Amino acid sequence: MRVARVRHRPCKEKLMSAPYFLRLALQELVKGTPQKQRLVAAFSNYLVEIDATELPSSVRAEFIALCAELEAVQPLPGESAVQATVRKLSAAEADRCAGRIVAVAAALFGEHAEAAPRHGRERGDGDDTVIPLFAAEA
């Protein structure tokens, strides 16, 4: 079983950081392809590119555990460990893995949002009203 990779990228690739790859993984997860195919693509194309040391300590352990879980099964000839692992997952387990990816991204983006200054017009009226998108069913 392998733990998340530590990659050392040249400086020009620093723009493609953990938030960038997580965003692309999330975009992959919401495509119209079959669930397990989306999970394999999100991991193989984007999550595998993330250097776990780039992540804040609050999400690093969860990310490393997720990567280890998604590469836990010994592959058959011609497939990757993630393909073998996802092939053996039930639909509920695949849902749970996708949810964990979303949770890691949400935690990371939440930390980035708290650390970043707010841009645009600052509202001084204290109106932070949330408008519901759907009416409650009676």
Concise description?
The protein is mainly α. It has helices at residues 18-29, 35-45, 57-70, 81-88, 91-115. The model is unreliable at 6-14 (pLDDT under 50).
Provide structural commentary.
The chain is mostly helical and 138 residues long. It is globular. It has one domain. The longest helix is centred in the C-terminal third of the chain and has 25 residues, at 91-115. Mean pLDDT is 81; it is low at 6-14. The protein has helices spanning 18-29, 35-45, 57-70, 81-88, 91-115. 51% of the residues lie in helices and 0% in strands.
Radius of gyration: 18 Å
Query: Which range best describes the helical content: under 10%, 10-25%, 25-40%, 40-55%, 55-70% or over 70%?
Result: 40-55%
Helix and strand composition category? mainly alpha
Number of strands: 0
Beta-strand content estimate = under 5%
Task: List the total number of helices.
Answer: 5
Low-confidence stretches: 6-14
Task: Quickly count the domains.
Answer: 1
For the termini, the CA-CA separation is 50 Å
Mean pLDDT: 81
| Overall outline | globular
Give, in order, the helices and strands. HHHHH
Main sheet attributes: strand count, strand direction, barrel closure:
none
